[in-house]
Specification:
This protein has helices at about 40-50, 65, 70-80, 145-155, 195-200, 215-220, 225-250, and strands at about 1-5, 10-15, 55-60, 85-90, 105-110, 120-125, 190-195. By secondary structure, it is an alpha/beta fold. The chain has a single domain (about 1-250), classed as Vaccinia Virus protein VP39 (Rossmann fold, 3-Layer(aba) Sandwich), CATH 3.40.50.150. A 7-stranded mixed sheet has the order 1-2-3-5-4-6-7, with helices on both faces. Helix 1 (about 40-50) links the parallel strand 2 and strand 3 (about 55-60). The protein is globular and about 55 Å long. It starts with a strand and ends with a helix. The relative contact order is 0.14.
Length: about 250
């Protein structure tokens, strides 16, 4: 697990613990929404507590944080309520040293406390995983592979001119930087919007959402090499076994 870096209210964290042999006891903190031994959920809660008002966070986290029940559901409900959770980037596999790691980047802004109002209104999800195949040597993930996500994130505004009164609307030179506004986004094949109400209607507020058809599941000829499939199965089983060990330790206490 990597401790978050923090500056000016912004946080970037990475949450991976499959190779970390840390204490698995339940963490009880008054400023946490849920008490759990799940290190990823605890770190996500910790990030929220250290954010300043209107601070922004981008957190790399594994898939299980998006769908795990119990404490996971509680954390997701509270995070959607108390922060503007506006973007989720589904990362492709093959970009980490461990084969088959399934991870995401969750973007959120902390907002002032409100009694009833939920600060999340829309969660935009970009699927960079389905039908994308990267490796650490032969087909590495490059900055250009993220160009479409960046364009979607900031909104695709025609013409490139900033609206009147917007910062930077006046230019000293002939070139005017396009006005970027994530509040004016457009859906694409890989970029979809889900309202707060849509998310609450999902079982356990499950954010593990996909909509693209996986070609590998439709055509056996597109399946990865048997060795890659076997490695992904092993990684999934090891991750599941790690979670069962944590549950076993909790029950022993």
């Amino acid at each position: 697990m990597h401790v978050a870096s923090r500056w000016g209210g912004n946080v970037i964290g990475r949450l991976f613990t499959a190779r970390v042999r840390a204490q698995t006891s339940v963490v009880n903190r008054d400023d946490f929404w849920a008490s759990t031994s799940n290190k990823q959920l605890n770190f996500l809660q910790h990030i929220f507590t250290i954010l300043n008002q209107h601070g922004r966070a981008a957190v790399v986290l594994p898939d299980n944080v998006l769908f795990e029940g119990g404490a996971g559901e509680t954390v997701r409900r509270q995070l959607l309520q108390q922060a503007d959770v506006h973007t989720l980037l589904r990362l492709p596999t093959g970009i980490f040293y461990a084969q088959g790691v399934k991870a995401n980047v969750l973007f959120s802004d902390r907002k002032p406390a409100a009694d009833k109002k939920a600060w999340t209104t829309k969660l935009w999800i970009y699927d960079l995983r389905t039908n994308q195949h990267f490796t650490l040597k032969e087909n590495t993930l490059k900055r250009s592979d993220l160009d479409d996500f960046v364009a979607c994130y900031f909104g695709r505004i025609e013409g490139g001119a900033r609206p009147p009164g917007a910062p930077g609307s006046k230019s000293d030179g002939p070139a005017v930087r396009p006005y970027l506004d994530r509040h004016n986004r457009i859906e694409t094949e890989r970029f979809k919007c889900f309202t707060y109400e849509d998310l609450l209607r999902r079982d356990k507020v499950n954010l593990d959402i996909f909509w693209l058809k996986d070609d590998a599941l439709e055509d056996s000829a597109n399946l990865p090499a048997p060795g890659i499939i076997a490695s992904e199965i092993v990684d999934d089983l090891e991750a599941a076994l790690e979670q069962f060990r944590e549950i076993e330790n909790d029950l022993k206490e």
